[in-house]
Every structure is written in structure tokens, then in C-alpha cells.
Amino acid sequence: MDYKMFLIKYAEIGTKGKNRYVFEDAMCKRMRSRLKSLGEFDVRREYGRIFVETFSEYDYDDVMEVLGSVFGIVGICPVVVVEDTSFNNISEAVVDYIDKEYSDKNFTFKVHARRNDKNYPKSSMEINSDLGAALLDKFSGLSVDVHNPDVMVNVEVRNVAYIYSKTIPGPGGLPVGTNGKGMVLLSGGIDSPVAAYMIAKRGVELEAVYFHAPPYTSERAKQKVVDLGKLVSKYAGVMKLHIINFTDVQLAIYDNCPHDELTIIMKRIMYKMAQEIALKEDCQCIITGESIGQVSSQTTQSLMVIDQAADKLPVFRPCIGMDKQEIIDISEKIGTYETSILPYEDCCTTFVAKHPVTRPKLDVIEKSEEALVGKIEELYQKAMETVEVVYCR
Ligand code: ATP
Ligand code: MG
Questions:
Q1: Ligand 1: does its nearest atom lie under 6 Å from the Cβ of 193?
Q2: pLDDT value, residue 14
């Protein structure tokens, strides 16, 4: 069918009281910017709801993909618009709509009519029963179930009439930009893009930091992270990615610290650097893809010791209680999985010890870090001064 209109359903925003318009505006803005390249669309609020009207040819699947990536939307209803609102005309349009939209015509239905023109010759109840009768008359496999219908046929009569019955699920959440900003530690793995997605879903704007260690990590590994950033930006909006050249810092740790503590100490310095950039960029949180017990640096003891390194910002880890498979399921759903599994090295795996500590103690780690005093400050500074910025969009 050719749809000229989509009704956008949203849930949680509706609970926002006086601030509701802020959330609606953010959602509309995001929809406009994502739809721009697909044709001519008008996104507007009307009767306390949000509509997308189309004014040009468009690809239905592309539009669904785009709207399906705007946080805040819980459902998208393709709407048939009927200009001439005489009852006969609406009735024909409803029959035609059901005919085209449902190939298998064995289902129960209910007509749910609304009208705002009180002078319309039929009441809502009459529209319900007369349209129901027209459908029963035309399609013998249909029957009415007013309590639990398979198909709810919505008909709204205003200056034009709207007919819709299907809802394509949206991603839910809150529109990006309505809940501050966070700095995600984005690696080339499976978990951190999922973590980024989940926090963006709560309305948080994102920036990202990636620790690059050439020549131990390749240009292709870096490009993979940029690509993941782009995939996440479909949902999260433009993302400023800070690429830190981590090699010299990492070598200093390798040369001066016990090897079984390398990953912990490296992670602590990553957190420190990420926090520094996050504070400069007005972020209120750090986000990582860690999950309890997944690797030695993600035991509760390791996380506790690493967590102390970010002393000014909370670290959000939305994957913390998920099994790997659950994280993979989300990454497949959001389209990052195929890129994440490309086999390029990460700086965390290049310098990994054979038997890393799994129960580090903060005082022991801090003692080991003393060996870096006088050796790492300049390298740290240089890394922070030579950050490369890429905008992922
Ligand atoms: P992921 O799948 O996200 O790479 P992982 O299972 O490989 O995670 P780790 O390598 O221990 O686990 O990394 C834990 C978290 O630390 C990652 O989720 C990510 O947030 C961050 N991280 C790891 N390596 C980097 C890196 N090179 N640059 C930025 N962040 C990183
Ligand atoms: Mg990783």
C-alpha cells in the first residue's frame, strides 16, 4: 500500500508532565534529521500526537529503518488518509485497506472510531457498527471480537479521515539529548557498542574515546572502531570520537609494572584519561562494556580497583549483569555484531599477561603504580595533547 502518513506512538514521554514538549521536540528533531536524506517529510505534532507526512516518493523499508532507530518511539502506524470524509467513501476506503493490507482474511477485528466533528452525520458508535457490518459483508472469514480482537481497525474522522491498524515496534527509550552527555570507552569489541546503545537509549548524548596503540594495533583496528561509532550514531546521533595514542603509556607500564597486573593498571590509566576528556567535554558519566566475570579484569575485585581510577564521575556499565549471549543478541539486533567480530587486535589483548591477577588489591596496585612516577607523566601529557578527533555520523 501507499502510505502518505505515519502515526508515531510514544510511551514514556507521555509521563513527563510539563516537560513533555521538551521530549517531543527532541524526538521530532531527531526524526527530521534522520528522514532528511530519504525524501520530503513533514514531522508535526497534532491533536497531542506526532505525525509524519510524506510529500515525495520514498522507500518504505528505509523509512521504517530510520524511524525504528529514533529513541522515544514505541510504535509506528502506517496511516491511510482519506480526503473525502463522507461515510460511503470512508467505508470503501476501509474495505480496500483491509483487502490490501491482510492477505489472509481469517481474523477477528474491532472497529475503533473517533470523530472530532460533532456535526458528522454518524456518531462514533454508529461508525463502529456500520463499518463493522461493511467488513463482515465483504469478507466472510472475518468476525467481530470487541474484547480481544486480532486486528483493531482505527478510524479517525477529522477534516480528513485516518485509517490504521498495524503498529511496527520502535526502539522505545527516551529521545537522545534529553538526558545529558556521557563518554563511552569504545573498543572494537562486541560489548562497548551495546553499552553505548543502551545508555543512548535513555536519552544520553554520547562522545567516545578509543585507545589506539600503533604499531601493535593497526589502522584497520582503528577504522573498525570508527565504523562501530558510525553504526551507533544511527541511534545516538553524531558522536565525537577521541582517539588517544596509547602506545608510549602502555610500553611504560609494560616496562615498569608487574606483568600480571598490566591489564588492571592499563585500565586505570584509560579510565583517568577518559575522565579527563569527559570533564572537558561536559559529560556527566563514563560508560563501558564491562560485565561481571567475563574476563580477569572484570571480576568484582578488578572492577572495584579499576573503578577507583575514575574518582570524579560515575561509571555506567549497562552490560554488567548480562551473559555474553544476551549482549550478542542486542548487538545483532542493533547491527553492530558483524563489524565487532572482525578479527583485529585491541590494545588490551596485545599486552595481556599469561596469568593476570583476578583478585587485585587496591593498595598493591597503587604500590606497583609508584614505579611509574617520574616516568609516565610526560607520556600521559603527550597522549592527551595529541588526541585525534573523528566525528562519527
Ligand atoms: P568489548 O567487547 O567492549 O571490547 P571486552 O569484552 O573486550 O569488551 P575488555 O577488553 O576487558 O572487554 O574491555 C572492557 C571495556 O573497556 C570495554 O567494553 C570498553 O568499554 C573498554 N575498552 C577496552 N579496550 C578499549 C580501547 N582500546 N579503547 C577504548 N575502550 C576500551
Ligand atoms: Mg575488547
A1: no
A2: 64
